[in-house]
Amino acid sequence: MSSLVSFLRLRGDLYGRLVLAAPFNLRLPSEVGHYLLVLSGRVRLAMSGTEHVLVPSDFVFIPSSDSFSLLSDTPDRVPVRDFTEDEGRAYQQRGIIRTEGDEKQGCELLSGCFHFAPHEIDLLIDQMSAPLIHNINANNSAPWLSSVFDVINSEMSTARPGSFSIVDRMLETMLIEALRHRLQASSVGSASWLRALQDQRIGRVLHKIHFSPQENWTVARLAKVAGMSRSSFTTLFHTLTGRTPMEHLTRWRIQRAAHLLTDGQSRSVRETLEQVGYRSEAAFRRQFAAVFGQSPKAYQAGKRRQRPASKLDKTPRD
């Protein structure tokens, strides 16, 4: 799990509290890595045509940028709506949104976002498109998580200086535990690079690929890192990840290149391909187009023209 944490380069960003009185149907802004923690009451999460009933102590991580709504768990249904300007302003300035209605049928949640290095989150979304829902008080959950939940409740109710920073770190821990629980619960036959990190030999190889993509990697060199024969390494890597070593290396290099082309440093295509380990510009352009459907230069130009997705940029409160 330490390998997973170092790969994702995780940082939590707590936006604040949602105190929702029934009936409600509130659409939250779309962004990668949104999370929710239900403090009290019941609520429905509607996303991609599916509804999930959430109860107190449910921790939810939404890796994709698909839009979602929070609905009251009551027979009455109301039309979906977005934040009003006043609610958005209150959320930014005070870290709270409060709606009017039946408080007994309502709920209270924490809402925020986890930030990752851009190329890491792309591969994470590959593995986890649906919401990750984990009840931290479940029998199979880590016992200490219930204490963390109590501390979060205390920090948010007292709102002392530094509370948001403390809760940020605790929610990062919750995500790590939820991911660990998901990996342990996965079927033996399911393949993903997330599960592969649990194998020390393949974990070492993935670490080398992810942190040194510019190296002239071959299957033989990677097998040596794993301390295995080439054939045994190739078989195990494919079994655990669902891809051959070179397929994973190629995808990682292309995702890394896409980030380098659009991080504001105005790198040329030639500089970028060299930084991710390509010797042939033709091969780089061909494989980039296979993943993104356009040339590296067109991708770079398109991203420059796009405005960043709207986020709830919160005013620092600590």
List the helices and strands and how they pair.
Elements: H1 2-8, E1 11-22, E2 25-28, E3 34-41, E4 43-47, E5 50-54, E6 58-62, E7 68-72, H2 85-94, E8 96-98, E9 102-115, H3 118-127, E10 132-135, H4 144-158, H5 163-185, H6 193-196, H7 200-211, H8 219-226, H9 230-241, H10 245-261, H11 269-275, H12 281-292, H13 296-305
Parallel strand pairs: 1-8
Antiparallel strand pairs: 1-9, 2-7, 3-6, 3-9, 4-5, 4-7, 6-10
Helix pairs in contact: 3-10, 4-5, 7-8, 8-9, 10-12
Provide structural commentary:
It is a single chain. By secondary structure, the chain is of the alpha+beta class. The chain has 2 domains: 2-185, Sandwich (Jelly Rolls), CATH 2.60.120; 193-305, Orthogonal Bundle (Arc Repressor Mutant, subunit A), CATH 1.10.10. It contains 13 helices and 10 strands. The chain has helices at 2-8, 85-94, 118-127, 144-158, 163-185, 193-196, 200-211, 219-226, 230-241, 245-261, 269-275, 281-292, 296-305, and strands spanning 11-22, 25-28, 34-41, 43-47, 50-54, 58-62, 68-72, 96-98, 102-115, 132-135. The chain has a 6-stranded mixed β-sheet. A 4-stranded antiparallel β-sheet has the order 2-7-4-5, with no helix packed on it. Helix 4 packs antiparallel against helix 5 (163-185), helix 8 (219-226) packs across helix 9 and helix 10 crosses helix 12 (281-292). The longest helix has 23 residues, at 163-185. The radius of gyration is 22 Å and the shape is globular.
